[in-house]
Design a protein that fits this description.
The protein folds into three domains: about 30-285, no CATH class; about 305-430, Protein Transport Mog1p, Chain A (3-Layer(aba) Sandwich), CATH 3.40.1000; about 440-490. The protein is α+β, with helices and mostly antiparallel strands. The chain is built from 14 helices and 18 strands. It is globular.
């Protein structure tokens, strides 16, 4: 957790003072991603690539690469995984429609499930995605999909469509002096671009499956991984089902993609064809860091610990925490209570109640303001009531840093009974928490057919059985094969 979040996962609420998204991040999109906030971004960076690159452009591209890597936590140190990714990419390139295209793979030190490509052949995969896969063929399916975006020139095609749509809207509005029609055309173009982007995803899926099969991998791996992604997203959301994107989503629904890639695989052959290389995959990921990087803070059960900031807090029972690079987010399984913790900017000498007002878009109830010490630290408290949600807010100053804590309850329910003990728990970390060890994957052999037995070894905050099953591509009620290897999360 660092900086300021741009979103509090409560419908209709935005926070002022959020950190601006850089130009590179605005252009970058993910083909495979955790999308628990309901936002979906374009598939590839939208920059033209047909012009020859000058030395200056090459330097700019390298600079963008460094910024991009830094925004995802840097490169992960996992030599065995990098070796696997490089070998898989080389094998896919030889089987692709453009064997002359060169690629460079970067493993990002991020726990989110994400992968994307740049038009110049740079491929990016997070360690969270590698951990979710069940075998090498599933990782290959993701890489083949990203490579397809490059070989099909999707970035250039999308950029041209955007420019053409913007030009038509501008001409109608300015030259023909018809701003209403221009605005209508611009609105229609958003749907056209979203539809175009979804079509690109499906085209990349189909091309990726063909490349996967030609490289000798199991073509059904694409469907398996998308299924794992769907289950992982549902588990993360806590709802049991992953929601489908809306009409403006740039990606098709996951269920539709699974159906289509499975159909494409069946046209190639029956299940069982191709290699999954599961043994080599498990050998590569054994010991891979899992979940949050402790330098960005870590969730341990109901406790959030950040050694770098020297702080920790405990959340009430029923909340599941997610640590992002911008904030700590929490929600209950029914979604009716949510919380946010982040760091906010405050001017020297600015009263904390003014800090809260400056960071919140909606009206604050004058009767809800309160300033008092919180564990010997100055703090300000506020209340905000909306149509659908009630919010309790606090700004707490620890040293030179100001932190914001927000808890929301759906409807007229006041979250104060849970909010007060949460804010009171914010404190300096204990000495034994000053050094956190990252969680990691461990490959173990099943001694029995019971999934519950291995699930008990999972060092996860909640639902260990469900997480074990998703992590290993197993359905509920699955019977393990004694002596067969599986992944568990350990400290």
């Amino acid at each position: 957790m660092g900086g300021i979040t741009e979103r509090f996962q409560v419908v209709g609420r935005s926070l002022r003072g959020a950190a601006a998204v850089g130009a590179l991040a605005a252009l970058l999109g993910a083909c495979v991603a955790d999308q628990t906030a309901g936002t979906v971004t374009p598939a590839v960076v939208r920059v033209p690539v047909e012009a020859p690159r000058t030395t200056g452009r090459e330097r700019a591209a390298d600079a963008d690469h460094l910024k991009l890597v830094a925004s995802f936590g840097g490169e992960a140190r996992a030599p065995n995984v990098m070796r696997m990714l490089t070998e898989v990419t080389d094998r896919l390139v030889k089987a692709s429609e453009r064997p002359d295209q060169t690629y460079a793979v970067t493993l990002l030190d991020s726990p989110v499930v994400n992968a994307f490509a740049l038009p110049n052949g740079r491929l990016y995969v997070t360690r969270g995605l590698v951990a979710l896969a069940s075998d090498t063929s599933e990782v290959a399916a993701v890489l083949a999909h990203e490579m397809a975006h490059v070989t099909l020139n999707h970035a250039t095609a999308r950029s041209e469509l955007e420019l053409r749509s913007a030009l038509v809207s501008r001409v109608v509005a300015d030259v023909l002096n018809d701003p209403d029609t221009g605005a209508q055309l611009q609105h229609q173009s958003r749907f056209a671009l979203a539809r175009f982007s979804r079509e690109q995803e499906l085209e990349a899926d189909a091309t990726g499956v063909r490349t996967l099969a030609r490289a000798g991998y199991d073509p059904f791996a694409a469907g398996r991984f998308l299924t794992a992604l769907n289950r992982s997203t549902a588990l993360k959301a806590g709802s049991g089902t992953a929601g489908e994107p809306d009409m403006l989503a740039t990606h098709p629904g996951t269920a539709e993609r699974i159906t289509l890639v499975t159909r494409a695989a069946r046209r190639i052959g029956a299940p069982g064809i191709g290699a999954d290389d599961r043994a080599s995959y498990l050998a590569a990921v054994d010991g891979l860091a899992y979940g949050d990087n402790p330098r960005d803070g870590a969730v341990r059960g109901r406790r959030f610990i950040h050694p770098g900031l020297g702080i920790a807090f405990d959340v009430p029972d029923g909340f599941t925490l997610e640590n992002t690079r911008s904030a700590v987010l929490g929600t209950t399984p029914d979604g009716n209570r949510r919380l946010l913790f982040d760091q906010i900017d405050a001017k020297d000498g600015q009263p904390l109640d003014a800090v809260l007002k400056a960071s919140w878009n909606d009206p604050l109830d004058p009767a809800g303001f309160e300033t008092r010490d919180l564990g010997g630290r100055p703090a300000a408290f506020a209340l905000s009531r909306g149509k659908d949600w009630t919010f309790r807010l606090a700004a707490v100053r620890i040293g030179d840093t100001t932190y914001r804590m927000i808890m929301a309850a759906k409807g007229a329910t006041d979250p104060d009974p849970a909010f007060r003990p949460w804010t009171a728990s914010l404190s300096a970390i204990a000495p034994e928490e000053a050094v956190l060890r990252p969680l990691r994957l461990q490959v173990v052999q099943a001694s029995s057919a019971s999934a519950e037995e291995l699930a008990r070894r999972m060092a996860v905050p909640d639902r260990p059985l469900e997480r074990f099953l998703v992590l290993n591509g197993l359905e509920r009620g699955a019977v393990l094969v004694p002596g067969r290897s599986y992944k568990v999360v350990v400290e």
